[in-house]
Specification:
With about 625 residues, the protein is α/β, with parallel strands linked by helices. It folds into three domains: about 1-75, no CATH class; about 80-395, Rossmann fold (3-Layer(aba) Sandwich); about 410-615, 3-Layer(aba) Sandwich (Rossmann fold), CATH 3.40.50. It has helices at about 1-20, 25-50, 55-75, 160-170, 230-235, 245-250, 255-260, 270-285, 300-310, 340-355, 360-365, 370, 390-395, 430-435, 440-445, 470-495, 520, 535-555, 600-615; strands at about 80, 95, 100-105, 105, 110-120, 140-145, 180-185, 190-195, 205-210, 235-240, 290-300, 320-325, 340, 380, 405-410, 500-505, 560, 565-570, 585-590, 595. It has an eleven-stranded mixed β-sheet with strand order 4-5-8-10-9-11-12-15-16-19-20, sandwiched between helices. The chain has a three-stranded mixed β-sheet with strand order 2-3-6, with no helix packed on it. The chain has a two-stranded parallel sheet with strand order 1-7. InterPro entries: AB_hydrolase_fold, CarbesteraseB, Carboxylesterase_B_AS, Carboxylesterase_B_CS, Type-B_Carboxylest/Lipase.
């Protein structure tokens, strides 16, 4: 009998935990607890009556049926993400822009106004799928923009798996004793969000236009790591937005190029970004921003997109400065996020073959919920002759890139998460390097020996191998930091200021992985209670000050800013520009200081590889 009680209680506890991980409604907890109690009482009653104690299977069947039915009925609803964390936020005053009248909402202390979910283009659905973004429609009356728009169509795992990743990966999972929801996702996704300070200023403010990352296949502007409240508080207008991803954003076909008035195909996501940037340029003054002081910023694929915006002929005059975190497409042969037109067409052919159709028009008729399951990779921008007219490095060699100044950099363990399923041993190390660096793997293996450095295993558990630490160093340089080395060199040759960082900060829980710098730079550590200490918050204040100072002047140096963007009496640690005579960058850690670039010898090998590819 005791064993029976233990088993039922254990089943009930595991079931409640599963409901929590799945974000089921709180009423589901109650039903699960009541069902568990009922089973305990039922067994106790039968045991006392000494009859039927061995015939409990009908009760078990009912118990199981109740649990399953309860899970289905109390599944979380699909909703849009609220613009601010505070419940029942106050609504702003009515303002008018060319599209119509609108209101937003205030954050909790009324220091920032947020206008979330403003359409910057028509919904790219139906006949507008696989077409350049179209101008948005006007609306009648006053609309309140208090929720982010739906996330762009993308593959996403089960809710409970996502919860486990926050427990095991981010270590920031929080049990919330209240109803939760699943974020809405739709092909109708072309919306942007404006964060602007409430504090009155004597002049229009600089603007940070942020492009989210996610390998051009996933991601959403509502993610807490780069919400714009904190930077807006410090005196900038912050804008982020959703754009078409994966097959919806980067599918290419010759029939689409033929029907396009611009002869374009394969860059719909990039064209969305350009449309959003043009919207900001045309409208940001209504929100207190200066259209002549726009800084474009992005991380990972967002940084690659920033690089593309810097060379696109369609963006000339739309921004001043650029911030790029952990990626770029300026090398002669980019390792990712970029492809030639022929490769884009081949991928498009594969998509149509996968779905058993012969034309893009037929592909338009496939439901978005099915099309998003495409197995063919569509995660790269392409030279379409319109948004991108040539290999980006050629534009830089001619000095025709648009950014007047560059703040950029990378993290110490960029490749860590991308190598989780790769076992790296001394025996297969050179073969793994040869996958991305054919002909030069042995030379790179001499620069980064397979046994050094040893990998710090306390952050991520994975396939491992004695060469995993070395593989992480090599691939972090190839996939991420090398593009910044090339980008900075072009800026130096053009005599334009370039400031490079090296993020190495870690703590007892988190590492300096890919995207690890985001909550520091954009002031969102507070959204992850318990993960960061005083040193982390101190570094975050320094990084926010650098980013905001750069948006004002193109130079991150100056004074540490207070919570409302006013200069304090404390000077920030000096951040020197990259120059031909020195290869130093700013190390962002508990101590912020200039250090030698740790990857220069790796870059020399990659340079040889790049030159060999161009000469072929």
């Amino acid at each position: 009998m005791v064993l029976y009680y233990i088993c039922i209680i254990l089943i009930g506890a595991l079931y409640i935990a599963f409901l929590e991980l799945s974000k089921n409604l709180i009423v589901g907890w109650s039903i699960g607890i009541l069902a568990t109690i009922a089973m305990l009482v039922y067994r106790s009653v039968f045991y006392k009556k000494k009859k039927g104690a061995d015939k409990l299977w009908p009760a078990f069947v009912i118990f199981a049926a109740v649990l399953v039915l309860n899970y289905v009925i109390t599944s979380p609803p699909i909703k849009r993400v609220p613009a601010v964390a505070n419940k029942n936020p106050d609504v702003t005053e009515v303002m008018t822009i060319p599209q119509g009248q609108l209101t937003g909402v205030y954050n909790e202390d009324h220091s920032v106004r947020v206008y979330a979910g403003i359409p910057y283009a028509k919904a790219p659905v139906g006949e507008l799928r696989f077409k350049e973004p179209q101008a948005p429609e006007n609306w009648e009356g006053v609309k309140t923009f208090d929720h982010f728009g739906p996330m762009a169509m993308q593959s996403r795992g089960s809710v409970w798996f996502d919860s486990l990743s926050h427990i095991l990966g981010w270590h920031d999972y929080q049990v919330k004793f209240g109803d939760e929801y699943i974020e809405d996702m739709s092909e109708d996704c072309l919306y942007l969000n404006v964060f602007t300070p409430e504090k009155e200023r004597d002049e229009l403010l600089p603007v940070i236009f942020y492009v989210h990352g996610g390998s051009l296949t996933t991601g959403d502007p509502s993610y807490t790591e780069y919400r714009g409240e904190t930077l807006a508080k410090k005196g900038v207008v912050f804008v982020d937005f959703a754009y078409r991803l994966n097959v919806f954003g980067y599918y290419a076909a010759e029939d689409l190029a033929a029907e396009s008035p611009n002869g374009t195909t394969g860059d719909y996501g990039l064209l969305d970004q350009i449309a959003a940037l043009k919207w900001v340029y045309d409208n940001v003054e209504y929100f207190g921003g200066d259209k002549n002081k726009i800084t474009i910023a992005g991380e990972s694929a967002g940084a690659s997109s920033v690089n593309a915006l810097c060379v696109s002929p369609l963006t000339k005059g739309l921004f001043r400065y650029a911030i790029a975190e952990s990626s770029g497409i300026v090398p002669k042969e980019p390792f990712h996020t970029f492809r030639y037109f022929e490769d884009a067409i081949t991928a498009g052919n594969n998509v149509r073959e996968e779905f058993g159709v012969t034309s893009s028009e037929e592909l338009r008729n496939i439901p978005a919920s099915e099309l998003v399951k495409a197995k063919t990779q569509n995660s790269s921008m392409t030279i379409d002759g319109y948004a991108i007219t040539e290999q980006p490095y050629l534009t830089y060699e001619k000095g025709e890139n648009h950014e007047q100044a560059l703040l950029n950099g990378f993290n110490a363990k960029e490749a860590d998460a991308f190598l989780l399923n790769t076992e790296a041993t001394i025996d297969n190390y050179a073969d793994l390097l040869a996958e991305d660096l054919p002909g030069y793997a042995e030379e790179l293996a001499k620069v980064v020996p397979p046994t050094l450095p040893q990998r710090d295993q306390k952050f991520i558990i994975d396939a491992g191998g004695e060469a995993k630490g070395a593989l992480n160093v090599a691939y972090s340089a190839m996939w991420f930091s090398y593009s910044h080395y090339v980008w900075n060199n072009y800026m130096i040759k053009q005599e334009r200021p370039a400031y490079e960082y090296y993020f190495t900060k870690t703590n007892d829980i988190l590492s300096n992985y890919h995207a690890g710098e985001l909550p520091y730079a954009y002031g969102n550590l507070w959204r992850h209670p318990g993960l960061y200490d005083e040193d982390d918050y101190r570094l975050s204040e320094i990084m926010q000050s650098y980013w905001v100072n750069f948006a004002y002047t193109g130079d991150p140096n100056g004074f540490l800013l207070d919570d409302f963007g006013e200069p304090t009496s404390e000077l920030l640690p000096a951040w020197e520009k990259r120059t031909e005579s020195q290869d130093k960058l700013l190390q962002l850690d508990t101590e912020v200081k200039m250090v030698d670039d740790p990857n220069m010898e790796i870059y020399k090998v990659i340079d040889k590889f790049m030159d060999s590819r161009v000469s072929e």
